[in-house]
Amino acid sequence: MYDRNAETPAERDAVSEVLLGMRLRGASYSRLRLTPPFGLRLPEGSGARFHFIGQGEAVLLLPDMPPRRLGAGDAVLIPRGHDHSLLSAPGVAVRDIASYTSQTLCKAFCEIRDCNAETCRTLDTTILSGVMELDLLTMHPLIALMPEAMSVGALLDRQPEMRAMLAAMEAEMAQDRPGSAGVLARLADVIAALIVRGWVECGCDEASGVITALRDPRLARVLVALHREPGRDWDVPAMASLMGASRSVFSERFTAIVGVSPLRYVTDLRMRLAAQWIGRDGEAIAAVAHRLGYGSQAAFARAFKRVIGVAPGHVRRMNAAQHPGSAG
């Protein structure tokens, strides 16, 4: 287990620097009030999924995982958004969330009520469910290494301050106050980010070479520089010089710890940044190529397709189709 108290200031700075690249925000939220028995299926999507139980309880079902019981005050993040279900009890029939009637409360926030009028409302289960954009741009290997579900419960002993935020979410869920939708969305964003950070601080289940590298002060110096200046004309001699080692020693150590060669890491990092800048941010392809140090747009396009799997123009068109008017 990774002991954060044992970190040196340099290691903390390196981890913090890379975590600055973490973008996690709620794209849409639903507040649900359901009378048991209920079964809610959430199909696989492009974003992470976040659930908070405000009242009552639910059972989380994920493929190839034992059922996980969630009680009031529990929060869970499903980082890759795999198909899953929330049930009042095992064995209950399941309905797709899209089959429920929803009411829009404000932009990107709706409410779903499926209640039995003859049942006391204190017996209902209330859930805040969100689709989140999870983008660890500078830590791209970590998303694939994350567990299927990440719960807040494992963090409360290490981060007791989270109890106050969870209590605030419970209070907001219990009351229908003006502006509660915005408050709930912002609290959920913070709690989900803390779940990810807690996993990183615990050593990412001891699975990531990137985190191991960040704990090595000399390698961390190189990684932080790459993340700060991805468009710089990086080569092995320049990176080795930053580490204070020969080219061969640097390359061997970097590859052994991180899992890919230094130049491959630089290219992967640049292309994932490019995918966001072109797709989500709507930047011109030529401008992104220049920003990342490519003198030739054709060379940039070849590298992009090799890493991302599609051409830059395809990413741009897909984003424009999904978000009309967002491209610049």
Which terms summarize this structure?
Jelly Rolls, alpha+beta, 12 strands, seven-stranded mixed β-sheet, Arc Repressor Mutant, subunit A, 42% helix, 328 residues
Can you describe this structure?
- Keywords: DNA-binding, Transcription, Transcription regulation.
- It comes from Paracoccus methylarcula.
- GO terms for molecular function: DNA-binding transcription factor activity; sequence-specific DNA binding.
- The protein has 328 residues and is α+β, with helices and mostly antiparallel strands.
- The protein is built from twelve helices and twelve strands.
- The strands form two sheets. A seven-stranded mixed beta sheet has the order 9-10-1-11-3-6-12, covered by helices on one side. It has a five-stranded mixed beta sheet with strand order 5-4-7-2-8, with no helix packed on it.
- A hairpin with a 6-residue loop joins strand 4 and strand 5.
- Helix 1 (9-19) packs parallel to helix 6, helix 3 runs antiparallel to helix 4 and helix 9 (262-279) crosses helix 11 (297-308).
- The longest helix has 22 residues, at 180-201.
- The termini are far apart.
CATH superfamily of the largest domain: Jelly Rolls
Proportion of residues in β-strands: 15-25%
CATH topology of the largest domain: Jelly Rolls
For the largest beta-sheet, the strand count, sense and barrel status come to: 7 strands, mixed
- Catalogue the unreliable spans: 1-12
Distance between the termini: 45 Å
Tally of separate helices: 12
> How many domain modules?
2
Structural class: alpha+beta
* Order of SSEs: HEEEEEEEEEEEHEHHHHHHHHHH
Strand order in the sheet with the most strands: 9-10-1-11-3-6-12
Task: Using the 3D structure, state the CATH architecture of the largest domain.
Answer: Sandwich
